[in-house]
Amino acid sequence: MGGQASASSSFSGLRCRNANEDWMSALCPRLWDVPLHHLSIPGSHDTMTYCLNKKSPISQGESRLLQLLNKALPCITRPVVLKWSVTQVLDVTEQLDAGVRYLDLRVAHMLDGSEKNLHFVHMVYTTALVEDSAAPPPSPQDTLTEISEWLERHPREVVILACRNFEGLTEDLHEYLISCIKTIFGEMLCPRGEVPTLRQLWARGQQAIVSYEDERSLARHHVLWPGIPYWWGNKLKTDALIRYLETMKSCGRPGGLFVAGTNLTENLPYILAHPSESLEKMTVPNLPRLCAWVREQCPGPGSRCTNIIAGDFISKDGFVNDVIALNQKLLWS
What is the pTM for the complete model shown? Predict the structure, then answer.
């Protein structure tokens, strides 16, 4: 991560390129003038959960009961929580290589963490840091730099960073995080305004849209975009999730960027009834049905059109390919 050389770096030149690494620049030129909120864009739900810390405390945002169980029975509670918290197996560079262009980044500050070490969170905290100011560059934990360096290697690709959650962040920590975003991405940042097209972004040398779900920060920083609506069904069963998504479509799409979440959500009775399962074991068998729903969708300006489609375990069952392929439907109209 963060540009650090791996043991196999001497063979990096022989690495097979993923067909989706540069899918935006490979789109038909007719689509270069379509605003991003009318394109079909793959996203990952809870992007950073591939690196959850096995020794992490339970997030302060979780229930008091779960935190008490973790303190009383950590050897039982923590492994169960981890099994149901991991939503991705590819790291952030691998997700970008696979074609993901919307990253769901849930930022938190641990109570017992150092002053400015911000982590990501989903029930527990990640080993990766948002930005590692204490380490000399390139830091293996510096996620924002890892993303910006990937963009430098792919100058015609655009990434949407959805910064949210913000557990434990004070106003000073918000300002610190935003200053890191500005420093690391610099001229790559697209300030908020009308949703741009790819051609407009390329002309301006901009590659990153950062949405930030904190109203006071938005008022101070024009470079940040408001929070992107996420259709989260909170459903355990695939059919129920699809009914929810179809209901949301019938109500009309939001005016700008938005996400349809294809991620299933467990509940406590299900976990107790399936002690040997995990979120991955629950999700993967349902991906063919969810991907079939994805293939039925159509991007564009219509009230029932989709935009960003995010999911768990994005490397499975051709999910990313299916989302990208929807853009071909724009050429039929």
Answer: 0.91
Q: Which two tokens stand for residue 70?
A: 């973790």
Amino acid found at 24: M
Q: Which helix (H) or strand (E) holds 166?
A: strand 159-167
Question: Are 44 and 99 a contacting pair, CB within 8 Å?
Answer: no
- 97 C-beta neighbours (distance < 10 Å), count: 19
Q: Are 56 and 62 in contact (CB under 8 A)?
A: no
Q: At which residue do the structure tokens 């074609």 appear? A: 99
At what angle are helices 74-83 and 64-72 packed, to 10 degrees?
A: 130
Of 327, 276, 273, nearest to 300 by C-alpha is 327
pLDDT in tens, 124-150: 999 988 876 655 454 545 999 999 999
Asked if 156 and 201 touch (Cβ cutoff 8 Å), the reply is: no
The confidence score (pLDDT) of residue 129 equals: 86
pLDDT in tens, 149-173: 999 999 999 999 999 999 999 999 9
